């Protein structure tokens, strides 16, 4: 993936130009699938382009991974972001798979097609909402948001900001004080400028 180099201060300048808020939060038209079970990572390992086993391998594993879903011939079908929800290797693996909401049913059918005898449950998560967060000042982002299910840097590139998964209807100003809800078209323009 080609990403134009832009520094964190460049992100801060961009966000400050958006009404001077600490952070801009953008609602995304993406959906989440929950995968839970002992075989969750092993099941996804051959179906996605990234090494999914690192999500459950150790406690210092990244909380999110970017990947593409593959068909039988190895061609890319969908772009996905995976999120680890379980806290330690002793817990049962619980992974959220983010995909475009228009292909949620197709992704779910694709995964269930290959689920043969795997100890994995696959279910949509309509009670969760997904947000992109562009920080105005990195010190304004909370280290651990209590109301957030997950708050992590975007795994694709630093210039893409952060990803926030929260319960539907959660108050974003309580999760990220001083933030404002931005127009998703501004986020898309920011993505396109990065290449």
Keywords:
5-stranded mixed beta sheet; 6 helices; Alpha-Beta Plaits; disordered N terminus; 195 residues; 5-stranded antiparallel beta sheet; alpha+beta; 10 strands
Write the layout of secondary structure elements.
Blueprint: H1 8-16, E1 23-27, E2 30-36, H2 40-45, H3 54-57, E3 64-70, E4 76-84, E5 94-100, H4 104-113, E6 121-124, E7 128-135, E8 148-153, E9 162-167, H5 172-175, E10 180-181, H6 184-193
Parallel strand pairs: 1-10
Antiparallel strand pairs: 1-7, 2-5, 2-6, 3-4, 4-5, 7-9, 8-9
Gist of the model:
With 195 residues, the protein is α+β, with helices and mostly antiparallel strands.
Please give a structural write-up.
This protein is an alpha+beta fold. It has two domains: 73 residues, no CATH class; 95 residues, Alpha-Beta Plaits (2-Layer Sandwich), CATH 3.30.70.1400. It is 22% helix and 31% strand. A hairpin with an 8-residue loop joins strand 8 and strand 9. The longest helix is centred in the middle third of the chain and has 10 residues.
**Compute the gyration radius: what is it?**
17 Å
Q: Return the domain count.
A: 2
Low-pLDDT windows of residues = 1-16
Number of strands: 10
CATH top-level class of the largest domain: Alpha Beta
- CATH fold-level topology of the largest domain: Alpha-Beta Plaits
- Specify the number of helices: 6
How does the helix and strand content classify structurally? alpha+beta
Quickly give the CATH architecture of the largest domain: 2-Layer Sandwich
Distance between the termini: 8 Å
The helix fraction, in percent, is 10-25%
Roughly what is the average pLDDT, rounded to an integer?
80
Strand order of the largest sheet: 8-9-7-1-10
Shape annotation: globular
> For the record, what is the CATH homologous superfamily label of the largest domain?
Aminomethyltransferase beta-barrel domains
Strand content: 25-35%
Largest sheet: 5 strands, mixed
Give the helices and strands as they follow along the chain: HEEHHEEEHEEEEHEH
GO molecular function, one term: transferase activity
Keywords: Transferase
GO biological process, one term: iron-sulfur cluster assembly
Protein name: CAF17 transferase
């Amino acid at each position: 993936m080609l990403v134009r180099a832009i520094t964190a201060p460049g992100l801060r300048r961009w966000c400050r130009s958006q009404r001077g808020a600490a952070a801009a939060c953008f609602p995304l038209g993406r959906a989440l699938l929950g995968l839970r079970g002992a075989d969750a990572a092993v099941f996804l390992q051959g179906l996605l382009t990234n090494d999914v086993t690192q999500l459950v391998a150790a406690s210092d594993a990244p909380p999110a991974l970017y990947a593409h879903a593959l068909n039988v011939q190895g061609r890319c079908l969908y772009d996905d972001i995976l999120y680890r929800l379980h806290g330690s290797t002793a817990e049962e693996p619980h992974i959220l798979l983010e995909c475009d909401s228009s292909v949620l049913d197709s992704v779910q059918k694709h995964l269930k097609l290959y689920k043969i005898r795997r100890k994995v449950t696959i279910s949509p998560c309509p009670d969760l909402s997904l947000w992109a967060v562009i920080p105005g000042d990195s010190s304004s982002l909370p280290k651990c948001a209590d109301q957030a299910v997950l708050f992590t840097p975007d795994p694709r590139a630093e210039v893409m900001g952060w990803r926030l998964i929260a319960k539907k209807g959660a108050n974003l100003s309580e999760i990220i004080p001083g933030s404002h809800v931005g127009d998703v078209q501004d986020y898309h323009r920011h993505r396109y400028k990065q290449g």
